[in-house]
Design goal:
There is one protein chain. This protein has 146 residues and is an alpha+beta fold. The chain has a single domain, classed as Transposase IS200-like (Alpha-Beta Plaits, 2-Layer Sandwich). It has 3 helices and 6 strands. Strand 4 and strand 5 form a beta hairpin. The chain starts with a strand and ends with a helix.
Length: 146
């Protein structure tokens, strides 16, 4: 029973691959802001006892593999993560409250979620190497003048 976790009334192995992005998919998650988002997500997940299996902050989106206990819904976790990180971003970087982030809306409205089953290792590798693949794709596009 090594991969399973226990709650008082449940034994579970609930892992999700979740992707979300800033409003209009602007490429604003650079260097310091990317590190800030990563640290914030890890801190918030620690508070809720969520397992961060892999986390990769790209310029225009965030990939995370999360172990979420069945006492929490994915939508509640995403509401908390996106809401709290947006508040923290605007506190830390007040200039981001100006256009194009009208009001307190940093993240786009939705997110993509997929359950992880038997292909967990394959998905972890995908998340970890996503950035390198994107870099290669961008350099090819520049090479051909796109």
């Amino acid at each position: 029973m090594g991969r399973f976790k226990k709650l008082s009334h449940a034994v579970y192995d609930c892992k999700y691959h979740i992707v979300w992005c800033p409003k209009y998919r602007y490429r604003v998650l650079l260097e310091e802001k990317a590190r800030f988002v990563e640290a914030s997500v890890r801190m918030l997940c620690g508070w809720k006892e969520l397992e961060v299996e892999a986390l990769n902050v790209q310029k225009d989106h965030v990939h995370v593999i999360l172990g979420i206990p069945p006492k929490y819904s994915v939508s509640d976790v995403m509401e908390m993560l996106k809401g709290k990180t947006a508040i923290k971003m605007f506190q830390r970087y007040p200039e981001m409250k100006k256009k194009p982030y009208w009001g307190n809306h940093f993240w786009a409205r939705g997110y993509c979620v997929s359950t992880i089953g038997l292909d967990e290792e394959k998905i972890k590798k995908y998340v970890q190497y996503q950035e390198e693949e994107e870099r290669q794709e961008e350099s090819q596009q520049l090479e051909f003048g796109f």
